[in-house]
Amino acid sequence: MISLAIPDFATWEGKIFVGVLGFSWATYMWEEYLAYRQRRVYREKKEPPVELKDIMEKDSYDKARAYSIDKSNFSLISGAFDQIIGTGVMVFGGYPALWAASGKVAEWLGMSAGAEIPQTVVFVGLRSLLSTLINLPWSVYFTFKVEQKHGFNKQTPGFFIKDNIKKFIVSQAISAPVVSSLVYIIKAGGDYFFLYLWGFTTAVMMFLMTIYPSCIAPLFDKYTPLPEGDLRTKIEELAKQIDFPLTKLYVVEGSKRSAHSNAYFYGFFKNKRIVLYDTLLEDYTPLNEEGTEAEKPTEGKEKKTGCSTDEVLAVLGHELGHWKLNHVLKGIVIFQVNLFLVFTVFGSLYKYSPLYRAFGFNHSQPAFIGLLIVMQYVFAPYNEILQFLLTMFSRYNEFQADSFAKALGFSEKLKMALIKLNEDNLGFPVYDPLYSAWHHSHPPILERIRALEGKPKED
User: Which of 242, 314, 232, 218 has the alpha carbon at shortest distance from 274?
Assistant: First the structure.
């Protein structure tokens, strides 16, 4: 018989429990309200607005609308499922049960009984495994039903299975030593352990940012140098023009996984590298050679996906604007300040027993569990506010990066690239203002085009 793990509401742990669970449901209902507002837009906006007549064809608009409706319906059901699971974990004592099971598994593996570090590593592994198994049906449905229906999925079932197994193995290989170190620092760091915790986490983050593109990402996708030619020459000239220290230029085989496109740069100091998805490049992507159903011309005229050379340069002008304007550095600083705040608060709450009892830990206070509770639950209201502010900050940065590309002379080409990429990715161009303000770290396409054209923002 399953027993409830709800504490007495008159106690501090009971009040914490009610506060955490209540805020979780309040956040969920708020998100569903916003999603409802946007679903209403999908239902009612059956015809493209007049201002889109030169931007988006009716056929593309209808496809984008259908894709958005399917994604919204999927999120409605999967979101409700996740909320129920999260509530069940709290109400029925999921964390203490998993912690106890982790101790037994650690003993079975020959580790010392009650040793917190091995038990924590097993706990993290089991939690990740359960999460993967629970979410797997949803991932399969979204990939092979929703994405495939709209022409985006390029994965075979075998590739999908192998990819997910590799992701799980790599994530555990990284998390095990990191989690072990975190617990050790908390236990052995004394009164100022949170400072050491922050320093260690910062070092790990910088290390992973350094090795991920070169050592981890190639485990999942194929990276090849961009061949010599007009595009490579112009990208190198653009980098030289703005003093971007470009050292390597890659194309990643994104078309093997999805038809969505992207571009990014990475690297520290004078060692910058640019990565282009092959799906971004009109003359490079295999998608234009396959002739899939989603890409067949409707009127006998070939319609390619991706961008031309000048349009790719415009996109890179935008991306390099983020570098020139120090957006990435600002983001890292914000993240580090926030992380320091979280660890400082955790340092003051680390031994607060009611916090652990609220989650069913009546006889023990595992360090990692305390960190998990503080970061995921105690900071939940703060995280919601912070995320909204970061979304606003990101939108501002996107407009700045567009202005930087415009100053380089890419205004018209960037507009064309945005239109093409929006169409290739079936982006729906009409959004509820409140939904967009809360969710969109990148401004909708119409707002970006108005800004590039120097038009005032519509109310």
Answer: 232
Summarize pLDDT for 395-450 with one digit per residue, the tens: 999 999 999 999 999 999 999 898 888 888 888 888 999 999 999 999 988 888 88
- Rounded CA-CA distance 342/321 in Å is 31
Whether 149 and 157 have beta carbons less than 8 Å apart is answered as: no
Question: Is 319 among the catalytic positions?
Answer: yes
DSSP state, 301?
A: S
22: tokens are 């209540």
Burial 198-225 (b: 16+ CB within 10 A, else e): bebbeeeeeeeeeeebeeeeeeeeeeee
Angle separating helix axes 380-407 and 445-452, nearest 10 degrees: 40
Bridge partners of residue 74, in order along the sequence: none
Question: Judging by DSSP bridges, how do beta strands 246-252 and 223-225 pair with one another?
Answer: antiparallel
Q: Amino acid letter at 61?
A: Y
Q: For the CA atoms of 106, 109, 113, 116, what is the dihedral angle to 10 degrees? A: -40
Which entry of 147, 311, 319, 447 is annotated as an active-site residue?
A: 319
Contact 70, 149 (CB under 8 A): yes
Q: Are 362 and 14 in contact (CB under 8 A)?
A: no
